[in-house]
Amino acid sequence: MSATDDQPIPQAPRCTGPRRLGLSGKLLLLTIPLVMIALLMIYVPSIANFWTNRLNDRLAAANTAALVLDAAPLGMVPDSLARQILTSVGARAVAIKMGQQRRMLASADLPPAIDRDIDMRTLTVWSAIVESFETMLERGNQTIRVVGPAPGGAQFIEVVVDEKPLRQAMYRFSRNLLLVSLGIAMLAAGLVYLALHYLFVRPMRRLTANLVGFHENPESAARIIVPSQRGDEIGVAERELSDMQRDLVSMLSQKSRLAALGLAVSKINHDLRNLLASSQLLSDQLASVPDPRVQRFAPKLMRSLERAIDFCQSTLSYGRAQEAEPDRRMIQVEPVVTEVRESAGLAADASITWISAIERSLSIDADPDQLFRVLLNLVRNAAQALESAKGDAATLQIRITGRREGSVAIIEVSDTGPGVPAKAREHLFEAFQTSGRLGGSGLGLAIAAELVRAHGGDIHLVEGTIGATFRISIPDRPVELQSIRNERARA
Fold first, then answer.
1. 3-state secondary structure the chain
2. Whether the predicted model's global pTM rises above the 0.85 cut
3. What are the pLDDT digits (tens) for 37-87?
């Protein structure tokens, strides 16, 4: 814990300004311009097609009139009949070209000049769009000469029409098209908006509301979101959020339990340290008793009291649960194992068979006190696992083996109990996760793993063995060759 750990962590300021446009409003504002763009894309080719069809209709009517006018005897048509034909066609003049001859079939009130020429034979899509909008943007009543293919052997036919009636017809068509398209587009936009709202906006609101509620009380399991059965990305987000919230609730519960436990342990250890100090004074006086049995057990009792006082002091140091750095040195493993057996009460226990298979003179580069704690936790767990097992001393066994593989010392603690449940293996070395015994704290394996890792080693459960087997691997510290050469030189 650093010097600033007890200071509150400043939280990021939350936005308290006016609420901005929500996701639904943004979706609506996005839908409206998209609908307008769709209407524009429909309108532009439609008005160009209407303009082209109207001019082709004039050419078709002019072709029919040309057949009537050309069929007249000697090409003589009364003016009244010619005007009626031109009025029905909606044109001012009709002409046709055959070979090198250009013939005016009928005319009425021709202007002195033609304002625009449109050749339907070479008209492209883009030019039709441009010409149609030019027609709509013009003012007044201009005259247009439209040229198109002619029937029979004629090269082309020409018809002169007024632009104003065509423009008015285009205005009416535009108004009707826009009204119908707008109605259809608004209906489609409404359906799209509702579909997106129910498919995406409402689930996102649900996720947002759950996040806000969970932020207010992250320790409450009731605030965990219940994922839906959706198989898309939103369903995946809901399930992942639910799993994350469950893990966070479990972690916060564990942290709260650790804090409460730390406070309780600190209070207890404060008084326990004083009691142990008094016991240590009594043990010093006990060491002076000349009884051989007292002389045999007094040093072990004093050593146990010293360890207990050190543990209490380390816990009381600013309330920290951090272990001290290991004081490593080369020690013999067998004496530590013997002391572990006596401290666990297995030396006089005839119901459990103790088997020690330590290599002769096996040494390990470790802190003797921390190695003692590691082995004691593992042996006690093994003994507790065997308490509920049925059998005699031949079947209830605790076995400790030790060997060296190069620069790595390996110690295994195994038992013939029921083994570790599959559910507990995932969080085997985490605090408060593996204790299934009434009154157990779930800290033994967590403490053992922390101490082994402090030595740069590893502890894990060996698979495929009877009962449970824990393997501890502690490598020797690297040696500086220069320091060894200097020591040899001084020697």
1. CCCCCCCCCCCCCCCCCCCCCCHHHHHHHHHHHHHHHHHHHHHHHHHHHHHHHHHHHHHHHHHHHHHHHHCCHHHCCCHHHHHHHHHHHCCCEEEEEECCEEEEEEECCCCCCCCEEEECCCCCHHHHHHHHHHHHHCCCCCEEEEEECCCCCCCEEEEEEEHHHHHHHHHHHHHHHHHHHHHHHHHHHHHHHHHHHHHHHHHHHHHHHHHHHHHHCCCCHHHCCCCCCCCCHHHHHHHHHHHHHHHHHHHHHHHHHHHHHHHHHHHHHHHHHHHHHHHHHHHHHHCCCCCHHHHHHHHHHHHHHHHHHHHHHHHHCCCCCCCCCCCCEEEEHHHHHHHHHHHCCCCCCCCCEEEEEECCCCEEEECHHHHHHHHHHHHHHHHHHHHCCCCCCCCCEEEEEEEEECCEEEEEEEECCCCCCHHHCCCCCCCCCCCCCCCCCCCHHHHHHHHHHHCCCEEEECCCCCCEEEEEEEECCCCCHHHHHHHHHHC
2. no
3. 887 888 888 888 988 888 888 888 877 777 766 666 555 566 666 677 777
